[in-house]
Amino acid sequence: MEELKKIDVTFRILSIKTLKFTIDNNEVVSKTDRKLFKFNISLATFFNPKNKIVGFDIIQAVFLEEDMTQKVSELISRIEFEIVNFEEVIKHNEDQKKINVPDQIMMTLISISLSTARGIFAAKVEGSALEGVYMPIVNPASFKNPLVPTQTEAKSK
Question: What pTM did the predictor assign?
């Protein structure tokens, strides 16, 4: 078994935003068993090495049925982190437009982002037809992509 290399990283949450939220507050939705709703969760990663930012857009689409044809809610959350020691921790090659983030750091940031998005969704649906429907717990490793194209500016204004 390969020994894990210790990585000291200093980071903070820079911003948390809701980019989009829609909900269908109809009677069918309110009467549907809370356990029957299906989530389609996706994640987009972006980097801004100049400003030491790693960010994630978490997209949660909620459907009324298994075949995911009737969308009843959508939430897009953006979570941005400032990596104080970005240059020491994250390797990037401007010429190749590639960034390599150590797995442990990526998993930590993705996990925090997913949990934050879960909380945002719970707060947004409170008092609605979807109250009591929660984003499921998902494995952050299923979203990992250590090599991601560089973006020259973060979309946070």
Answer: 0.84
